[in-house]
Predict the 3D structure of the following.
Amino acid sequence: TLRRSFHGPNRAAAEHFFALENLDSVLRAETENELRIARALADAPPQRVVRRTSSTIPRGRYARVPVMVGDSLRSYMFDTGANLSVMRRSEAEALGLEIRPADVSIGTSTGRRFIADVTVAPKVKLGGIEIENVAFLVAPDEVLGRDPQFAIPGILGFPVLDALGEVEFRRNGVMHIPERVPRYDVHNLALRFLMPVVQ
């Protein structure tokens, strides 16, 4: 949904929405941010899983997991609460990724706000799962830690988790991703845009 073109009917709908009287300021700001991201990603191909095998992945210090971005082995956090994946600006530059201007205002769990751009990693591999066209917010380096020992180069967020279908965090410190996503009779989880909602 973030990569839908905002020309023609979609753009007209957005303009009509912003013209509504008494539009809640928080909802307006959230929607404006989503539109900025969508416009920056409008010509990017959709994220998709291209290869999938059962994978058991060790979780290292600070809940980091090994991930291949292109041909480069990295160590990223896996954050089920992040609506989008995030990486440091220096990380995007080191990987040679195109940084697309978006000027998005993002809030953190600590209440801080920062301005972010976006990028798309053509290939991300997590264990035996290969995902193409993964979108990342590009954050100022200091947002993800100043101390080199604790700084987070990247965070895999909800769209990647959604692509994996199911993830088990086991007591022995590993993360297991099944080859086939099981079907369940219980349906108590839904999405409001990229925000999980539990019954």
In short: The longest helix spans residues 25-41. The first strand starts at residue 48 and ends at 51. The chain has a mean pLDDT of 84.
